[in-house]
Amino acid sequence: MNGFSNGFSPKLTRRHFGALLAGSAFTLAAPAILRADSGPRLVVIGGGFGGASAARFARISYPDVNVTLIEPYDSFVTCPYGNLILGGKRALPQITHSYDGLRARGVDVVQNRARDIDPVAKRVTLADDTRIAYDKLIVSPGIALRRDAIEGYDEAASEIFPHAWMGGDGSQISILRRQLEALPEGGVVGLAIPPNPFRCPPGPYERISMIAHHLKQHNPRAKILAFDAKDGFSKQGLFQDGWAELYGDMIEWIPASQDGTITAVDPQERVFISEFGERHKVDVGNVIPPQYAAAIARDTGLADDSGWVPVDPLTFAAEAAPDIHVIGDANIGSPMPKSGYVANSTSKQAVAAAIADLRGEAAPADPVYFNTCYSHLGDDYAVSVAAIFRKDGEGGIMATPDSGGLSPRGPLSELAYNRRREAEYADAWYDSITTDMFS
Amino acid sequence: MSFLSQALRGGALALVLGAVAPIGAAQAEEIRTPMIAQGCAGCHGQSGVGTGSVPQIAGYGRDAFITTWESFRKDERPATIMNRIAPGYTDDEVAALADYFSQLR
User: Fold this and answer.
1) Element (H, E) at A429
2) Nearest-angstrom CA–CA distance, A145 and A322
3) Domains of chain B
4) N or C: which end of chain B has fewer CB within 10 A?
5) Which of A52, A120, A110, A9 lies closest to A351, judged by CA?
6) pLDDT, tens only, A217-239
7) What's CA A204's distance to the chain center, in Å?
């Protein structure tokens, strides 16, 4: 360790090397050329924030482990920054990511959809009936829409009233953008916002902001009616301050207690129908239905009656089946929000715990999970909420007391610097996290 | 070959490479990232190299890292978000972060 026959000496001394190894848990870099076809088999369902992060982390940390990633789409369109397409600040290619980086790391990326899981035989069956065996399975499939929660909101309705709440092939966010561009002068944009829990708590309100940002420039007399199935929302004070500051009276938010819950739609007539039967005509309608875990999690019995998957928060092992870890929006991760950063952060503990179990070792002790959610309200104007989660001493996890929290409230005259820096940090977050997922 | 000896061989090669060139993203990756530091990568980039306006923390002096962290924790140093993040970690965790990032040089 202290010298080589060619005369080079390692930069770190043996003592430093030992100190690093002595840490409670670590990841080990390895050249991508190492393949381990006879090694343990880790299969990952879902190539999004959770799954891609898991696959990449596994190849970097455990070069002897075979990693297969099953993902239906040939590239990943992020939901984060999709709202910036609506605001005219990004184009679709900028939020579309290739899986080639993961392939270069030795991940076997299988473009297909997982249809079934046999937890006894430890096999995943794909849509074309191909079967893939696993030693450990990471399931990160995301969400599905509870279409039955909004009468009339069938698949065809999504073409007229897009949800744009799953990246898919990018068509949903593209439809909504085109509709906004074509909005009649002074027209009405309606949003139907779901009850908790749903993917990305601040997301609908960033969307309102970015739609307003577009309208302020191109259609300033247009109005936004935000019908909400809730009486409060994430970063509410910050959003409402910002809306008043930037958009005047363009945005009207209707809470559930004022009949804001949309329970039916008539796409042909372009009408939202509220819980108490009020009909609201819109020119553009964004319907974000109530949600639950994606079908693979429900159809295989991983999810409970809530429609979400209960897991051990220290390992993400599914309560319903051994050798399966469920991460990302599909799981019950409370108090952690359903966010991309949470999926990314927790993916590493899930993989480390899974591999440790294969080796007869304990999962890394005392995990700490991290989240920061940025929301763009306009140009040079973003706000955030941050949280650090850890064991609560009772088998669950909690937000670390006296830490985290929201951006400060206040006028631009005092906080323009903060708002602009947060917008810059949000951009850096997007680049950094997608690097941590796909590179 | 055991996992540990295989790891040592991979690590030794990486250390040699690291010794003959300035630290860059690819070489930094060769140094093992403790689990506690994984969350930082979402903003501070791979191995703390930084991205856009978010500063590089790779190679930050160990003592300075801890001092700076404390001033964020006490909300003494002007900050946009680190003053909310710093109180979320224990002293031991901050020491581990300082050890790791300071060795990326």
Assistant:
1) helix A412-438
2) 27
3) 33-103 (1.10.760.10)
4) N
5) A52
6) 999 999 999 999 999 999 999 99
7) 13
Q: ipTM score here?
A: 0.89
Residues whose CB is less than 8 angstroms from the CB of residue A95 and which lie 6 or more positions away in sequence, other chains included: A77, A78, A80, A81, A82, A84, A85, A167, A170
Tokens at B78, concatenated:
């002007």
* pTM of the predicted structure, to 2 decimals: 0.89
CB contact under 8 Å between B7 and A28, yes or no, is yes
**Alpha-carbon gap: A125 to the closest alpha carbon of chain B (Å):** 31
**pLDDT digit string (tens) for A301-328?**
999 999 999 999 999 999 999 999 999 9
The structure tokens listed for A242 are 């910002």
- Going along chain A from its start, the domains and CATH numbers come out as 14-72+112-144+293-367 (3.50.50.60), 147-289+372-434 (3.50.50.60)
- Asked if B42 and A64 come within 8 Å (Cβ–Cβ), the reply is no
Interface probe for A, chosen from B9, B43, B70 (most Cβ of A below 10 Å), is: B43
Does residue A360 sit at the B interface (CB-CB below 8 Å)?
no
**How far does B64 lie from chain A, in Å, by closest CA?**
19
Query: What single-letter amino acid sits at A8?
Result: F
Chain A residues in contact with B18 by the CB 8 A cut-off are 10-12
Query: B78-83: which pairs have CB atoms within 8 A and are 24 or more residues apart?
Result: B80/A407, B80/A418, B80/A421, B80/A422, B80/A425, B81/A372, B81/A384, B81/A386, B81/A407, B81/A422, B81/A425
